[in-house]
From TrEMBL:
This is NB-ARC domain-containing protein. One of its GO terms (biological process) is defense response. Residues 804-916, 943-1048 form the Disease resistance protein At4g27190-like leucine-rich repeats domain. Keywords: ATP-binding, Coiled coil, Leucine-rich repeat, Nucleotide-binding, Plant defense, Repeat. The keyword Chloroplast does not apply.
Length: 1107
């Protein structure tokens, strides 16, 4: 019977609570009436207060107290009829209970709160008014608003300036309008208002204050993190294309330019076989015309074989894709009309009709109607011209073009080109070595004068110096019957690993700009560069090494993408060769397919299938599973697939890589994916409609799983079974903690957690115990996690335990945290002991971040990050310091800091040494007073002479409080390796290098090659009037808008006899100055300096030079 007493105790506790809740149900109507009565009493009290207030306001010079106005507004809200309606629930027994309880609580709240507060306002002795503020008071308020508006304007202008550094970008119209409005408002001065008699009444000032408030409110839209302030500049002709100039084509380029500059010819076809150099010629023509004034727009579009429009049923679709390419080149804003061929043609025609243009279409395979596309008919006198490159005479004839033939190079020019590319090793006294010459000439003959073959073969033979090497190569060449065969020779000279990587590039669409990182990731997961036990970083570097070899051997080309930066591309002839070598590839990438290939095309011996970048919308349920048991790679990314039949993967059980990325309509996956037990890579990033994934527990061989940028809210079942996983990309919508599943993923090397900008993020990890399990983690990337308060746990979590498990973060090299707007610090100083392998730290757009490393004492302790090489801190408005104590980072090579309002000094006495720092970039640091806290450092023995010894480049922009960058004593002691100094848009900068009267007159920077000073309105001196800056290595000098600078104290080696001379390595046109009038007013130490340097000066403004 021992249980009776505990039960009785529970009953005693429960009965009063139960009685109370039954009371709520029985007395529901009473609670309603009580609340209504209290509302009536409050309403009467409000009327009394309002009447008394009106009486007191009859006295002149009085206004209502703010707290009285606030009480009246609150009383209005509490007496509204909607309040009682919201509190009364309609429903059953439980609904009455909860409604009664809320009514009871609200009645008590009214009684004790606002009703009681109103008592004092009904007292006869209580004053409800204050004296009307004086004109001086409102003037002060107005000036404070003006100051706030000024700071807001400066912040927006700084962000705008950074964004405008992107090529071809100008301010959005609404941003320009706001800046103009804010500037006009800031320009209003109180003293002007007084002199104009507008301050006689406070109401005028109050109106001005309200105007400032409205502008401030409007400006908030442009201060949000990540806001885009720029748009494409349609006035820009275009941007230079990367191109390698080959010998022997200058005459053709001159002929094309002559025709384009005249009025007789409006359509030109550059005709020649593949690889003969048509594209290279036209790239050089394109770049030349960018700097001339003949055309207002120079547009380049690569058409490629994939825009074949000979089949009538494909006509509309192909023209639409072609139109989209032109629209992209014209920077037309993306609109729904871009899916309509007729409307898009009208938009293109309208844009092109606004200016003269040259349209260059590279690699045209079939004729088409210019009118259907929206291209105005180019004729001799309308300023519009068309050039196309093609292999087909029929195309040239059908497009009514004047033809310029590009023939193979004659022997002498071919030999010259071959010699350029192979280098000097095979030459002796300027001639080809005798024992090599006969073999070389016969090999060259096989290249048939085709530049692509000549260059590719020359690169393959580079470094082969013995006659037997050339004899062996000739024996191979003797079998060749075509240019493709010649190109195969270069391929066969590669190591097997490089060959496999090269062939993989053919899986991309023709002429695609391939992201290097994406390609290397494929190589890692597919196997060419994968090696068990190697770190991901090591494999990544190996991938870059292979890319460099392929580019050096001219099998790939380096290109730039406007969004992705450095990319590579594959010449169409080389791609054709790669696909010929790979009969087990099925590649139909980027050719606007709407359906999967026919059943008979899915051969049993297929190894790789690439259908990426098409418009496939569905995989029909009637289609049987392709019988491809050997298939290892299936690339379906960038389509419009919405559903996949359950049985589709049934006969693909050897599949290793499945890429379904960026199928935005894909809402579910077939359960048959769970049977792909050999799968090593499953890529689903960008499948925005995807909400769930089948069980993954069978996919124990999976090494890479990317679910980022999907709508998945629950972790896939069986994730904790994927013990071989090395790369995991997750979405921030996840409502679960990651603690349990991550504990089993001990091989994980790369963890990416990101969310959509506007998505609700629920992601969290509850404990720090999981980190001890991730001893192989190399990279951690977090983005848009709005609810994340910490990265590495709270300080207290470590304090409670003696330490984290041994090996925690023992491999972590890269931390990247972006747009996590609740984080106040990256980690506590207690964590640094576990982060000793860190090489890269990137933190950006975290609005609440105040410090990178949190110290637990005021002074902080001495700590080290011995392997840190790169630190990037971007747009952290509240950032005050990196660390308040002493931080040792001997290995750091690059520091970038931008967008902070509180940092006053970048390097303080606690930032020790930095002997390996090479690059320092600082921008938009509004309160920066000094780059180097020289008083804190001093020149004492504790600052070794190796400090900053390796610094090569320093860039400082938009640091409004900075008055100098260096002192001459620091330059002499620490900065002797400087190669580049760039300072721009620092409104308070007065001197670049400060010095004292007693210091030396000569400041030497022996390695300085580039000095750029722009937009420095207060700059008076580069160094003191008695000093001279000696920099004999100078190659480029740029000075724009530094009108107060009267002297350039650079010691150029000018000749006393006034013969033309300039710095030894100075490149003509690399003295860039603006305006010209300022240059002419400069004072020079040497009497002939101005005249001698004048021929090397470029007086164009910077925007013309860039364009």
């Amino acid at each position: 019977m021992d249980f009776i007493e505990p039960v009785m105790n529970i009953v005693k506790d429960v009965v009063p609570i139960a009685k109370k809740y039954f009371n709520y149900q029985i007395r529901h109507n009473d609670y309603v009436n009580e609340f209504k009565e209290k509302q009536k009493q409050l309403k009467r009290r409000r009327q009394d207060v309002e009447e008394e207030l009106h009486a007191q306001l009859t006295k002149p010079g009085k206004i209502a107290k703010k707290e009285v106005q606030a009480w009246l507004e609150k009383a209005d809200q509490e007496t509204a009829e909607e309040v009682i309606e919201d509190l009364i629930y309609k429903g059953g027994f439980l609904t009455y209970i909860f409604s009664s309880r809320k009514l009871d609580e609200r009645t008590q709240s009214l009684t004790e709160g606002i009703f009681k507060q109103g008592e004092k306002y009904t007292s006869a002795d209580e004053s409800l008014v204050v004296d009307t503020p004086s004109t001086e008071y409102w003037a002060t308020v107005f000036e404070k608003k003006q100051e706030r508006l000024k700071h807001q304007k400066e912040d927006i202008e700084a962000n705008l300036k950074t964004q405008r550094m992107q090529p071809g970008k100008i301010a959005r119209k609404e941003v320009e309008e706001w800046l103009e409005k804010a500037g006009q408002q800031i320009g209003i001065k109180v003293e002007d208002l007084i002199s104009q008699g507008e301050c006689s009444s406070p109401s005028n000032l109050k109106r001005k204050i309200e105007e400032s408030k409205q502008i401030l409110e409007q400006g908030k839209e442009f201060t949000n993190a990540g806001v885009i302030l720029v748009r494409d500049d349609h006035s820009i002709k275009g941007f230079p294309l990367l191109v390698e100039k080959y010998s022997g084509r200058d005459d053709i380029q001159e002929e094309i330019l002559e025709w384009l500059k005249g009025d007789k010819v409006a359509r030109i076809a550059v005709l020649g076989m593949g690889g003969v150099g048509k594209t290279t010629i036209m790239k050089n023509v394109h770049n030349q015309l960018l700097i001339e004034s003949k055309f207002e727009n120079v547009i380049w579009v690569t058409v490629s074989k994939d825009f074949n429009i000979t089949v009538q049923q494909k006509m509309k679709f192909d023209i639409l894709q072609f139109q989209k390419k032109i629209a992209s080149s014209l920077k037309l804003e993306r609109e729904p009309d871009h899916e309509n061929e007729t409307k898009l043609a009208a938009l293109i025609s309208q844009r092109l009709g606004q200016s003269s243009f040259l349209l260059i279409l590279d690699d045209v395979w079939e004729p088409f109607s210019l009118e259907d596309v929206g291209i105005s008919n180019p004729v001799g006198n309308n300023g519009c011209k068309l050039v196309l490159t093609t292999r087909s005479k029929d195309v040239a004839r059908a497009m009514d073009c004047n033809v310029i033939h590009v023939n193979p190079l004659p022997h002498e020019e071919a030999l010259e080109l071959f010699s350029e590319k192979i280098g000097s090793d095979v030459f002796s006294d300027g001639k080809i070595k005798r024992d090599i010459e006969p073999f070389l000439k016969q090999i060259l003959q096989k290249c048939d004068g085709v530049p692509l073959a000549i260059v590719t073969v020359a690169k393959s033979m580079k470094g082969k110096l013995l006659p037997r090497h050339w004899k062996l190569a000739l024996s191979e060449f003797s079998k060749f019957e075509s240019i493709i065969d010649c190109l195969k020779f270069s391929y066969e000279c590669l190591e097997p690993q490089c060959q496999e990587c090269f062939l993989y590039c053919a899986l991309y669409p023709e002429d695609a700009k391939i992201r290097k990182e994406e390609l290397i990731e494929y190589w890692i997961e597919e196997g060419p560069i994968y090696k068990e036990g190697k770190t991901r970083e090591a494999m990544n570097w190996k991938g870059h090494d292979i890319l460099d070899k392929l580019v050096d051997n001219c099998l790939l080309q380096s290109v730039k993408h406007s969004d992705f930066g450095e990319c590579v591309s594959m010449h169409d002839l080389l791609r054709e060769m790669a696909l010929e070598i790979s009969p087990q590839f099925l590649v139909k990438a980027g050719i606007a397919l709407e359906k999967l290939p026919e059943e008979h095309e899915w051969r049993e011996n297929l190894l790789k299938v690439s259908l990426m970048g098409n418009h496939i919308t569905e995989i029909p349920s009637s289609m049987p599973s392709p019988k491809c048991p050997m298939l290892t790679t299936l690339l379906l990314s960038g389509n419009k697939i919405s559903t996949i039949p359950e049985a589709f993967f049934e006969h693909m059980l050897g599949l290793k890589i499945l890429d379904l990325s960026y199928n935005r309509q894909l809402s579910r996956l077939p359960s048959s994916i769970s049977k792909l037990e050999k799968l090593t890579t499953l890529l689903l990033l960008g499948c925005k409609s995807l909400r769930e994934v089948p069980a993954l527990s069978n996919l124990v061989g999976l090494k890479k799983l990317d679910l980022s940028d999907t709508s998945i809210e629950e972790l896939p079942q069986g994730l904790n079974m994927l013990t071989n996983l090395k790369y995991l990309g997750l979405v921030g919508r996840l409502s679960e903690t990651l603690d349990e599943p991550l504990q089993n993923l001990s091989k994980l090397q790369h963890l990416l957690v990101t969310a959509n900008r506007h998505a609700e993020t629920k992601f969290k990890w509850e404990t720090i115990g999981i980190w001890g399990k991730l001893q192989n983690l190399e990279k951690l990337h977090l983005d848009y996690l709005h609810n994340l308060n910490m990265v590495f746990g709270e300080v207290g979590a470590i304090a409670e335990s003696a330490s984290l498990p041994a090996g925690t973060f023992s491999s972590l090299q890269d931390i990247s945290v972006w747009r996590c707007d609740k984080i106040k610090k990256l980690c506590s100083v207690r964590w640094l002991g576990y982060l000793q392998k860190l090489q890269t730290v990137e933190v950006g757009y975290c609005d609440q971040l105040e410090e990178i490393i949190g110290s637990e004492s005021k002074e902080g302790e001495k700590v080290a990050l011995p392997n840190l090489e790169r630190l990037e801190l971007a747009d952290l408005p509240l950032l005050k310091t990196i660390y308040s104590g002493s931080l040792i980072c001997d290995s750091i090579k690059k520091i970038e800091i931008s967008g902070s309002k509180h940092i006053e000094s970048v390097f303080w006495s606690g930032f020790n040494l930095l002997p390996n720092l090479e690059y320092l970039f600082l921008s938009c640091l509004k309160n920066l007073k000094s780059v180097f806290d020289e008083e804190g450092f001093g020149l004492s023995p504790r600052v070794p002479p190796t400090s900053f010894f390796s610094l090569k480049e320093i860039r400082v922009t938009d640091c409004g409080q900075l008055k100098k960058v260096f002192s001459s004593r620091w330059l002499l002691c620490y900065f002797q390796s400087l190669e580049t100094i760039e300072v721009s848009s620092c409104s308070q900068m007065e001197e670049l290098i400060s010095s004292s009267a007693h210091e030396e007159e000569k400041v030497t920077l022996p390695k300085l090659e580039r000095l750029q000073l722009t937009e420095l309105p207060l700059l008076k001196t580069i160094c003191s009037s008695s000093s001279v800056l000696i920099c004999d290595s100078i190659q480029s000098l740029t000075i724009y808008h530094c009108e107060k600078l009267k002297r350039i104290p650079l010691n150029f080696p000018l000749l006393d006899n006034a013969q033309s001379s300039h710095p030894p390595s100075l490149i003509p046109k690399e003295i860039r100055v603006f305006p010209k009038k300022w240059w002419e007013s400069l004072e020079w130490d040497h009497p002939n300096a101005k005249d001698i340097l004048f021929p090397f000066c470029d007086f164009r403004p910077w925007w013309e030079y860039i364009h």
